[in-house]
Specification:
The protein folds into two domains: 168 residues, Udp-n-acetylmuramoylalanyl-d-glutamate--2,6- Diaminopimelate Ligase, Chain: A, domain 1, CATH 3.40.1390; 123 residues, Udp-n-acetylmuramoylalanyl-d-glutamate--2,6- Diaminopimelate Ligase, Chain: A, domain 1, CATH 3.40.1390.30. The strands form two sheets. A six-stranded mixed beta sheet has the order 5-6-8-9-10-7. β8, α7 and β9 form a beta-alpha-beta unit. By secondary structure, the protein is of the alpha/beta class. α1 crosses α11. The longest helix is centred in the first third of the chain and has 11 residues. Bound molecules: zinc ion.
Amino acid sequence: MLFSDIAAALEALAPPQTAESYDNVGLLVGLPRTPVRGVLVNLDVTEAMLDEAVAKGCNLIVTHHPIWFTGRKRLNGEDYVSRIIMEAVKRDIGLYACHTNLDNIREGVNRRIADTIGLVDTAFLRPGRTFQADGRAILTGSGLVGTLPEPMGKQAFLAHIKRAFGCGGIRYADAAQETISRVAVCGGAGSFLTPDALAAGADAFVTADISYHKFFDGEGRMLLMDIGHHESEQFTSELIRAYLLGEACADVWEKSPAGNSTQSGEKNSPGNKEELSKTFPNFARYFRRRAAGEPLFPVLLSEIRTNPVRYC
Ligand SMILES: [Zn+2]
């Protein structure tokens, strides 16, 4: 299996054309025809992760956040971004980013956030365009909105979010209502969706990177919660890893490459086989290769917590 195969698999899930125009997604460093020895997954790439990749025998790092967004005129080691790019090239480590294309699909970053909270009946908060890829229509949109199975008191909801996401603290603007039922979510910087969350009738909007003045936009009608950027997106690494291991479709192909049982619930019903075969065409190919005896490679979660933000 080559870097280009991993790219094709990830892009079947989250096509690059669904990424935002400012973004930088795909294979950012590395030759597409490099054989994969192992994949290391994290939210961000850091200099320490290059050492970790070497120690664990991985030569491809897949992250949610790209190491750089805009054009760079020099790579001279004076900043951490250029050092990471240079070291990755020197050590023959590929860097791959799956960012806003994973934000903007139904089963992406925000689905994991909604599942962590326990939301049901989710829908896009701001529906976007429909893309055609591999002969199928891919709906895109920003954020999700759903409903709690049972309404919760406001304080209980805040405590639930703090615990579920391991937050060092939550900055929030209060709301008049005491009960939370409808909840909007957007991983990372989501305050651009505050008007959409209000229009969707959300009692709470769980997001991150809210600046002072933006907290007023809740109008006192919605808990507007900044739970931390890293905290909100922390499950994205697991999402990528599970997808690459085929755990999201374990019943279809009997077992995951790691031999682990699946935890992905509803998607594993045998009735979804045909649908999943259409949704994950690259994995169908991948598992067929496995059946032919192609060597496996590890897909590991990085042990480095990359969050640069501390709380005191
Ligand atoms: Zn982010």
